[in-house]
Amino acid sequence: MKRKLWTAAALIAAFGLGLAACGGSDKGGTPREQEDAAPADGAAAQAEAIYKAHCLSCHGADLGGGFGPELKNVEQRLSADEQFAVIKEGRAQMPAFGGRLSDEEIRALVEWVSAQ
Ligand code: HEC
């Protein structure tokens, strides 16, 4: 019994380390929309997929804006933390995504958007 518990703890620890190694925070949220992209640029590919699924309709296919403002140079107006807050908590007509996307997903999204 004791041994089983220990094994479970070791597994959980190994899993946690694995997540941290992937650049995630220690919150341990698992991405819900895993793409079968190569691990090397997995985060960017995943962020792009999330953008297409959740943001494109309002911010445009080329981030040029539409219902929402264009996001091409958003990093010149808002810091990564400010963008994170807008996406997670919403602002005016911008819906909150905190309930749908994990912190890791939002962070990857901010990084991806700022790199466009
Ligand atoms: C229903 C339409 C809609 C969707 C979907 C949407 N947004 Fe927005 N977004 C807006 C609007 C409208 C604003 C402007 C809010 C304001 O006036 O304060 C905005 C503002 C923003 C801003 C701040 C821009 C600035 O210049 O201040 C960021 C960053 C942003 N959205 C990112 C995203 C991301 C990333 C997603 C996908 C997870 C997303 N939005 C999905 C409508 C949307």
Features of the shown structure:
single chain; 116 residues; mainly alpha; Cytochrome Bc1 Complex, Chain D, domain 2; 55% helix; binds heme C
Task: Please explain how this structure is put together.
With 116 residues, the chain is mainly α. The protein has a domain at 42-116: Cytochrome c-like domain (Cytochrome Bc1 Complex, Chain D, domain 2, Orthogonal Bundle). The chain has six helices and no strands. The protein has helices at 2-21, 42-54, 56-59, 74-77, 80-89, 103-115. Helix 2 crosses helix 6 and helix 5 (80-89) crosses helix 6 (103-115). The radius of gyration is 17 Å and the shape is globular. The model is unreliable at 17-25 and 35-39 (pLDDT under 50). Bound molecules: heme C (HEC). Residues 54-55, 57-59, 67-69, 71, 74, 77-78, 83, 86-87, 91-95, 97, 109, 113 line the site of heme C. Heme C (HEC) binds next to helix 3, helix 4, helix 5 and helix 6.
How would you summarize the topology of this molecule?
Blueprint: H1 2-21, H2 42-54, H3 56-59, H4 74-77, H5 80-89, H6 103-115
Helix pairs in contact: 2-6, 5-6
